[in-house]
Amino acid sequence: MTPFKTSTVALLAALIPGVALAHPGDHRFADLMHLIREPDHLAMIGIAVAAVVYGVVKLRARR
Ligand SMILES: [Zn+2]
Prior knowledge:
Layout: H1 3-20, H2 32-37, H3 39-62
The structure holds zinc ion (ZN).
């Protein structure tokens, strides 16, 4: 894998639990609307997107 792909996969792997576990509680029956409505999840998604964008910008700037 290229460094870009490796870092992207690592970021996604690190972020999925963060998005899913943004707050305590039972999420076995939580659907996508819950993830969109809850500010806790939105904050985590926002951080995740910002981290991915930051990583892409950093990697592109190196070339
Ligand atoms: Zn939740």
